[in-house]
Amino acid sequence: MLWLSRRPEWQRSREFETTIRSGSTSTSSTFGSPADQEWDEAEREWEAYNAHFERGYSHHGQDGEDDTDPIEKPKTRIVFQPTYDTTHTIFFRGHWLRVRRSRKHDTNSEMISISVIARSNNILKQLVLQAKKEYEAECVHRIQIYFADAHGSWRWTDSRAKRPLSSIVLNPGVKEMLVDDAKDFLRSEKWYADRGIPFRRGYLLYGVPGSGKSSLIHALAGYLQLDIYVVSLSASWISDSTLTSLMGRVPARCVVLLEDLDAAFTRSVSRDDEEEILGSSNNNNNNGNNGGNNNNAEGPQEQQSGFSSFYGSGRRRGGRSGRSGEYLSDVNTLSLSGLLNALDGVAASEGRLLFATTNHLDKLDEALRRPGRMDVWIEFKNASKWQAEALFRNFFPACDEDEVEDVDSDGALSAGELEARRRDAREAQKRREREVDEALKNIKVESRMFTPNPPVPTTGVPSSPSTSSVWSIASSASNLLSSASSLSLPFGSSSGSSTPSVSPASSTSASRKTSSASSSIASAAAAVSSSRPHVKKFGEGNTAYIAPPPTDDIASRRHSAAPLDKKTLAVLAKKFADGVPEEEFSVAGLQGYLLKHKSNPHLAASNIESWVASERALRVKLAQEKAAREEREKQLREKRRQELLLKREEKKKQEEKEAEMEKIKAKLAEKEKEEELEKMRQKLREKEEEARKKEREEREGKSGDSAEEKKEEEKVEEKKEEHKTEEEKKSDSDDDEDKENWSDALP
Ligand SMILES: Nc1ncnc2c1ncn2[C@@H]1O[C@H](COP(=O)(O)OP(=O)(O)OP(=O)(O)O)[C@@H](O)[C@H]1O
């Protein structure tokens, strides 16, 4: 893409899309392609033309707009790219190439297809090689950052200027060891191959937040000229398969960064889940404090750091269990075996430097900790005094001067040197005061006066100057002194005169001299002191009221510190480090503090103790608030738990009652059935009875008619009886005959 963006044909495309990038010209986060430069040129021409055009109509300079804008304006770059799905023709080394940008719909990733009509594909190979060369040349100064996306692919997110390793303040030897180890690894591919050892190296950076883990990785990647591929293991979409495909797709030489190693597999469901509430009643103390070891002194200074926060990726989205006690999505289905497989399975790519960061080493599974997966472990602690001093020295520039010879053994300037400096400062101060007095004397007194409230300028009407008007004049004069003196005094706050506080009482002498001064005082005084190019300020043209002095708070927020001489720097750095307690505050915390005093190293050094005290007080307050919050939450949970238990109890009772009722109903139904049956039986019996009765009656009704028949029947019966007895007799006589026959036959 870089190569394409440099083709003139690409830039001349008639169908193009535009978008914008922001950034200052010096720190543009994108490649400064010729297309960009051409566009800048066009923009400049257009602006010049417009300015010329407008001059014809406007009264130039009428409202005093200042042309000298010392601040470089942030630049909005217009990015200009040929559209998708259109074929563009580019001429390259005697061949016409057809180039087409398109988007893959499934992964939404961009694809560029280049075709050429030629006898061999050499021309395409040459093109790719040249593109690679140009890309690499560009990468010398920047590192490319890729983030894993939910489709299991790497998405280019940004390119960043390299961070010098020297800007990372770590205990002596740590950086050197890491650099040597990484360099050695990258050189020893053959060594690994000869021994059949997978060519991979893992580094585990663990320790308190804001101690420089991510910064070190960034700086190291820049030093080794490697791109960074970041995966946040707490992302909701991470699963075994996506991680495996991601790890299989990293290029051979790069830095792979696994963020939040401790947050992997820490999935939770919603806090409102009943089971969780009931189950957690016994370990309430862990709630909302899931490893958020807050006695690491981060307190209010804790910063969201790491790559994901830089680049706005998915990290900490949905919470980071380790720190915030919030909840990770329950869609994250990464398993330990999936992670191990992705790290050193067959599909895992080789040649990469794997960095994993965690704030909670104790939460890591033993399998992950096993050497071979994470070969080098580096612990990051809160800032030591040594680091604090180095940080201060890094932060404030030192001008090239004579070496620090007369800084005595404990780092302080010798008494003589100090006295000489104070004397110089006092003299410089007096000189300025004299100059201002001179200026005030020369001021032409006009008849116009300052008026008290209401602030309506009453030109030409004399009135006695009020306290407030005197104060404003005097303070502007003193302000002038203060700004002048702050430039010359080496010990701003210790001398007590670098930011003199102006009050009506303290400014009486000045006010007497200027009781009838006009508004021209301000400009006259400013003319005395200012040697810088004049920049017209808002309200400077006021003639009735002079601006009040900036408050101390505003005054201390100026943004540039004059370079310190080495001796002063040594003293201030020592003073600063003396005030920082050993390993109590993170480097990020100290950096935040120094940023607040960016323009005033003296104040930064002298205020450190009060900052430490206020941070501690704040931390105690936060801890108390946290404890109170936790207690409240605990009570709330306990209440909810009781309510839930009660509800469950009631529900159970209700269910039992219902079951009882059901039983009774069933019994009743059975009884009813029985009764019904009985009734039916009864009815049946009655019916039978009735039927019999009827039969009997019928029979009785017929009895007269059948008397003869009865007799006949009786006769038949008698005959039958007779016949039967005869037969019996006969059989008896037969038996007797047989017996006789037998007895004859026997001897
Ligand atoms: N040792 C250090 N040297 C220089 N700067 C540091 C150091 N530690 C922290 N910082 C500064 O503090 C900020 C946060 O640092 P960084 O993100 O590297 O911390 P971290 O240890 O990765 O934190 P986390 O664990 O929260 O990701 C950065 O702006 C960095 O410049």
UniProtKB/TrEMBL annotation:
One of its GO terms (cellular component) is mitochondrial inner membrane. Residues 199-382 form the AAA+ ATPase domain. InterPro entries: AAA+_ATPase, AAA_lid_BCS1, ATPase_AAA_core, ATPase_AAA_CS, BCS1_N, Mitochondrial_chaperone_BCS1, P-loop_NTPase. SMART domains: AAA, BCS1_N. Keywords: ATP-binding, Hydrolase, Membrane, Mitochondrion, Mitochondrion inner membrane, Nucleotide-binding, Transmembrane, Transmembrane helix. Residues 19-30, 282-296, 458-469, 489-531 have a biased composition (Low complexity). GO terms for molecular function: ATP binding; ATP hydrolysis activity. Gene3D superfamilies: P-loop containing nucleotide triphosphate hydrolases. Residues 1-37, 272-324, 418-469, 489-560, 642-747 are annotated as: Disordered. The keyword Transmembrane applies. It holds the Pfam family AAA_lid_BCS1. SUPFAM superfamilies: P-loop containing nucleoside triphosphate hydrolases. Residues 1-18, 418-447, 642-732 have a biased composition (Basic and acidic residues). It catalyses: ATP + H2O = ADP + phosphate + H(+). It is found in: Mitochondrion inner membrane. It is a single-pass membrane protein. Residues 1-168 form the BCS1 N-terminal domain. The keyword Protein biosynthesis does not apply. PANTHER family: BCS1 AAA-TYPE ATPASE. Belongs to the AAA ATPase family. BCS1 subfamily. This is Mitochondrial chaperone BCS1. It comes from Coprinopsis cinerea (strain Okayama-7 / 130 / ATCC MYA-4618 / FGSC 9003).
